[in-house]
Write a structure and sequence with these properties.
By secondary structure, this protein is of the alpha/beta class. It has 14 helices and 15 strands. The chain is globular and about 70 Å long. About 4% of the residues have low confidence. The structure holds zinc ion. Zinc ion (ZN) binds next to loops.
Length: 393
């Protein structure tokens, strides 16, 4: 590939952004050195990003000495450190969920906040018009009125290039609705649509870029996954991927929102698990709290073990095909006693070829969808760089 100067500039800009995200705070000299760029080249890009508002300067404190503290603090020049802008939100995140829609203004320097919190929420209505109406009510409560972009996480099969939802088994009205146009009725900003599990995988990777190969599986109202390979989200022109939840489980006769019978998610979504408990307890216990209590008291009872075995089978199949040996589990399964995740881990290990040579890691992690949305926002709106460019030597 021929690299033209403007392209080089964008690649360097992207590298600086990513590096500062990794380092948290750094001096100009640290940034230049860690990327092997000359100080003038790095300095020019830093100035551009400062002017844009993507970076901000903070005073270097004694508690966080940088390697080049001495250089930055030379006479006449106070030691200034750089970080991704935290003092002001640049994006607005919208999490469109099956039951709740949540909003949060998002700074670029989002940092590690653990499990996402979304303080602004409303019940997801059943029509596009009502959804817009609720968004308008929320917008009135948000002090900041303008954003660089509105980042929407949505369930279902999402064509991220065209910003369309092609199919949504648990939220059918979104299939015909033009979500970006709906959002633009409320905010005059570009809109990015991201599939919800892909947002989680991006967020997990942004928080820990050291291992870029994993399968993320999220449990909640549905069950879905996303594949991270070599630090990039696995993508395909047809936006179907990671749909673990719609794999049939032999013997399961529950009807799924997708129209099929026996899908995994009818067993291990929150609703599915509660339904199984209700069936096992003669309808005495019918909610999530009862399930938590039940598992705390009785451990992994036979019906739960069967559901976890089925889940592990599907996950192990994916690992065997993709050659991955790390699973990141997010969502409601982590709210149950640890015996549940460790049962799943053992079952996954029984089903994967890699486990004959080593261990398949199955780890619980917080949902970091907000960080994932920000990562996608940086990608699309601040420094757009194509996959081919990033992957070229
Ligand atoms: Zn299904």
């Amino acid at each position: 590939m021929v690299v033209v100067p403007s392209q080089m500039g964008r690649l360097n800009k992207r590298a600086l952004l990513t590096q500062l995200q990794r380092l948290g705070t750094a001096s100009r000299a640290d940034l230049a050195k860690s990327l092997g760029l000359s100080q003038p080249t790095a300095g020019k890009i830093v100035d551009e990003l400062l002017e844009l508002g993507a970076f901000e300067e903070v005073a270097a404190t004694n508690e966080t000495p940088g390697e080049s503290q001495g250089a930055a603090a030379k006479p006449g020049r106070p030691g200034r450190m750089l970080r991704l802008t935290r003092s002001r939100a640049r994006f607005l995140g919208i999490q469109l969920g099956v039951t709740q829609t949540s909003l949060a203004p998002l700074p670029i320097g989002i940092g590690d906040t653990g499990e996402d919190s979304w303080p602004m929420q409303f019940r997801t209505p059943r029509t596009p018009g009502d959804w817009v109406w609720q968004l308008e009510k929320m917008a009135a409560q948000i002090e900041q009125k303008s954003f660089w972009g509105i980042l929407v996480s949505a369930p279902g099969l999402v064509d991220e290039q065209k910003s369309e939802i092609l199919y949504s088994p648990n939220l059918h009205w979104t299939e015909k609705a033009r979500l970006p146009a709906l959002v633009r009725q409320v905010w005059r900003a570009p809109v990015l649509l991201l599939q919800e599990e892909r947002a989680l995988a991006l967020g997990h990777h942004a928080n820990d870029p050291s291992d870029g190969d994993f399968l993320l599986v999220d449990f909640g109202e549905g069950v879905g996954g996303a594949v991270m390979l070599g630090g990039r989200l696995f993508a395909h022109p047809l936006p179907i991927g990671g749909e673990l939840g719609h794999t049939p489980v032999p013997g399961n006769e529950r009807v799924c929102g997708c129209g099929a019978i026996g899908c995994l998610e009818t067993l291990v979504s929150t609703r599915g698990l509660v339904k199984s408990l209700a069936a096992a307890s003669g309808n005495m216990a019918r909610n999530w709290e009862a399930l938590e209590k039940h598992v705390a008291q009785h451990g992994v009872v036979p019906w739960l073990a069967r559901s976890l075995e089925a889940t592990a089978s599907v996950i192990a199949g994916a690992l065997n095909v993709l050659g991955l040996r790390r699973v990141v589990v997010t969502g409601t399964l982590n709210e149950l006693p640890p015996a549940v995740l460790s049962y799943l881990k053992d079952a996954v290990n029984r089903g994967t070829l890699w486990a004959r040579f080593g261990e398949v890691k199955v780890e619980g992690a917080p949902r970091r969808r907000k960080a994932g949305l920000v990562a996608a926002g940086i990608d699309r709106f601040i420094v757009p760089v194509g996959d081919a460019e990033l992957n070229s030597p």
